[in-house]
């Protein structure tokens, strides 16, 4: 069996799932995959690895490799490593990303570039899969083409070994017969470094790998032409097409539900690699008016009796549950309501065909079914095609079965994107849409991902609020159109809003009534391992902050911190602080309005530039600036001077889809104009700022 090393670097489980899929398929193609998380450095050694390497790498919202790859990236970026350190290594890399973010697939690109700098060579072209349009558009053809590339590599390697052997014989003979010619001194090592195959690099972006593989990627995507098609119904040509349906994912869990004595189950039972702190809520305030488009809440946590610490700009995790009503609906649909208090015990099926099957680490043994569905599984997760394929085998109605087959087939990729991925349909939506589908509990436990904690930026400074931690959030609300129109709230923000309701007050001047008999509600939080969004160590460096909406959160912490530092060091030299803030309406959602004015009046905030996107001009006054990037453009000379000549730092926090991209484009435009350079050179200059940690982003979609 031909072996290859398969590594994955995952943040939320997607890269791991794809790597496991590759591992599953390898055996059928005559290969053996040695699968490891890239963080498990004790289980592999690239320095001595002789087999080809396949890497699947995701990317964080800030364009960095995932947390699991931090040690690996640090190790390979050691500047003391020679340029031929990995010259023996041949690899293929699949990067995952989202083009809504500025640094698309940058986690994979960082690793790819560094491997090449250390002498490693591609045996297969890099793939960049885009979650914005559907990862499978690149992932599926890339995986399909991997087997031919591996076969070619192993075939070439055998031929190369034979050639090197013949060369060694010739060299031995020449040494016996003639003095060794100088030009032959390094010929053996040069042969070792020969790059076989086409030396030109090709990049499979969202176009897929078809051009590389000569169209071998399989059946064409077929989109339903009629607008009457829906999640449950297709139209010609898809409804009449022959389908390429993936093989059913192998079962691997044996599930036993057992009556267990009543036990108290808390959030602390949730599995986590980071320490978990259960902390009381000391204050909750609504920052927006009731007629604002979005409701924004500020929550203050009392961390005085814990070891939790933070710096301004840090983010932390809130551990949240699924909606109780959705959990009850799921239990009812699975016909397990009467067993919800039963303990769940798992073991690997003895006859499983899943290679390397292991118990999901996020499912604690012996916890109740209610607890597992509430705290451990992301029941709102958009189902992957493997789950859809598994549901097919538990659907009795012929038409429903056919539709599920279409949605998980290659021909139905467009319908999958349109009705499942883009509509954010969850498992419950599918079960409602396909009534004859009766999946066993095992299937859910095998396929649903871990319920992820939600990250929030700290909106306070410990200097200003000792023993307290503040954060803000919008209560996310959206309409689900999958089966019927339903108004839903975000998993975490909807839960938080309900938790803080008893202590919620309408404005910052009123705090929770003291001395009340009811105990303060508590939530569980954990620190984030990768916090980078900090004020510059040199307090004299100018700071530009760009944070519309709730993106202002870390900058409130910055300003509170700077205010206290200036009080403690009245003779200190502190750089200018600019804030570009934006909201819809001046009188409805201007967050921290009074606090910002106070910072400005005291000289802590030297420049406050605010834009209102929905306010119309009054009378004959000039139309107001609508967006933060417009205000940045208005002050382009000052911004360019601070960044290019005064070693200033710029921080951007907020929406990745539009704002962060628009701000980045505006900065490129400003640098190009003010420095008198072409756009490409301006892009390089902006990239240099990022490398120097002077252009930092904390963004989300």
Automatic annotation (TrEMBL):
One of its GO terms (molecular function) is flavin adenine dinucleotide binding. It is found in: Cytoplasm. Gene3D superfamilies: 3.40.50.360, NADPH-cytochrome p450 Reductase, Chain A, domain 3, Nucleotide-binding domain of ferredoxin-NADP reductase (FNR) module, Translation factors. Its cofactor is FAD; FMN. It catalyses: 2 cob(II)alamin + A + 2 H2O + 2 H(+) = 2 aquacob(III)alamin + AH2. Keywords: Amino-acid biosynthesis, Cytoplasm, FAD, Flavoprotein, FMN, Methionine biosynthesis, NADP, Oxidoreductase, Phosphoprotein, S-adenosyl-L-methionine. Its EC number is 1.16.1.8. GO terms for cellular component: cytosol. This is Methionine synthase reductase. It comes from Mustela putorius furo. The gene is MTRR.
């Amino acid at each position: 069996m031909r072996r290859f090393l398969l590594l994955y670097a995952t943040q939320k489980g997607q890269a791991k799932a794809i790597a496991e899929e590759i591992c599953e398929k390898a055996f059928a193609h005559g290969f053996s995959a040695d699968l490891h998380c890239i963080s498990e450095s004790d289980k592999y050694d690239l320095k001595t690895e002789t087999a080809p390497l396949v890497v699947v790498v995701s990317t964080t919202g800030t364009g960095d490799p995932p947390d699991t790859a931090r040690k690996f990236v640090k190790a390979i970026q050691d500047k003391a490593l020679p340029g031929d350190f990995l010259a023996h290594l041949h690899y293929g890399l699949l990067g995952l990303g989202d083009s809504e973010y500025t640094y698309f697939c940058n986690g994979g690109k960082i690793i790819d570039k560094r491997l090449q700098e250390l002498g490693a060579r591609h045996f297969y072209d890099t793939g960049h899969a885009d979650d914005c349009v559907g990862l499978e558009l690149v992932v599926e053809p890339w995986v399909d083409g991997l087997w031919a590339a591996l076969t070619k590599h192993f075939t070439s390697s055998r031929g190369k070994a034979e050639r090197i052997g013949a060369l060694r014989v010739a060299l031995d003979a020449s040494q016996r017969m003639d003095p060794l010619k100088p030009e032959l001194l390094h010929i053996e090592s040069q042969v070792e470094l020969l790059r076989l195959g086409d030396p030109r690099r090709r990049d499979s972006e969202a176009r897929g790998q078809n051009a590389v593989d000569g169209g071998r990627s399989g059946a064409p995507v077929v989109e339903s032409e009629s607008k009457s098609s829906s999640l449950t119904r297709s139209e010609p040509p898809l409804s009449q097409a022959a389908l390429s349906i993936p093989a059913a994912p192998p079962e691997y869990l044996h599930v036993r539900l057992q009556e267990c004595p009543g036990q108290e189950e808390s959030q602390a039972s949730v599995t986590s690699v980071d320490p978990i702190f259960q902390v009381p809520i000391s204050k909750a305030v609504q920052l927006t008016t009731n007629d604002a488009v979005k409701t924004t809440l500020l929550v203050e946590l009392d961390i005085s009796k814990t070891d939790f610490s933070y710096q301004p700009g840090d983010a932390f995790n809130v551990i949240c549950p699924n909606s109780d009503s959705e959990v009850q609906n799921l239990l009812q649909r699975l016909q397990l309501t009467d067993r919800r208090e039963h303990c769940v015990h798992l073991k690997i099926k003895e006859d499983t065909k899943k290679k390397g099957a292991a118990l999901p680490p996020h499912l604690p043994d012996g916890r109740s079914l209610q607890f597992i569905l509430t705290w451990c599984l992301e029941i709102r997760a958009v189902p992957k095609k493997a789950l859809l394929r598994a549901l097919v085998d538990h659907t009795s109605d012929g038409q429903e079965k056919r539709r599920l087959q279409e949605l998980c087939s290659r021909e139905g990729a467009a319908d999958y994107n349109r009705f499942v991925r883009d509509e954010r349909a969850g498992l419950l939506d599918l079960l409602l849409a396909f009534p004859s589908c009766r999946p066993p509990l095992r299937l859910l436990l095998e396929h649903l991902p871990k319920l992820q904690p939600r990250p929030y930026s700290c909106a306070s400074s410990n200097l200003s609020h000792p023993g307290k931690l503040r954060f803000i959030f919008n209560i996310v609300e959206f309409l689900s159109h999958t089966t019927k129109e339903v108004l839903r709230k975000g998993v975490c923000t909807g839960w938080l809003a309900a938790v803080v309701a008893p202590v919620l007050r309408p404005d910052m001047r009123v705090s929770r009534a003291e001395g009340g008999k009811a105990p303060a509600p508590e939530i569980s939080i954990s620190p984030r391992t990768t916090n980078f969004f900090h004020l510059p160590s040199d307090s004299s460096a100018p700071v530009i902050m760009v944070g519309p909406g709730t993106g202002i959160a870390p900058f409130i912490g910055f300003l509170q911190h700077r205010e206290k530092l200036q009080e403690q060091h009245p003779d200190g030299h502190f750089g200018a602080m600019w804030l570009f803030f934006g909201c819809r309406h001046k009188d409805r959602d201007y967050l921290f309005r009074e606090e910002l004015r106070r910072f400005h009046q005291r000289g802590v905030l030297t420049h406050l530039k605010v834009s209102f996107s929905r306010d119309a001009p009054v009378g004959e006054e000039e139309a107001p600036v609508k967006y933060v990037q417009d205000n940045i453009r208005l002050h382009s000379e000052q911004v360019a001077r601070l960044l290019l000549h005064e070693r200033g730092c710029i921080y951007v926090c907020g929406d990745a889809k539009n704002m962060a991209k628009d701000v980045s484009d505006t900065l490129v435009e400003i640098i190009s104009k003010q420095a008198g350079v072409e756009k490409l050179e301006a892009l390089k200059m902006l990239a240099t700022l990022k490398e120097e940690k002077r252009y930092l982003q904390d963004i989300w979609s």
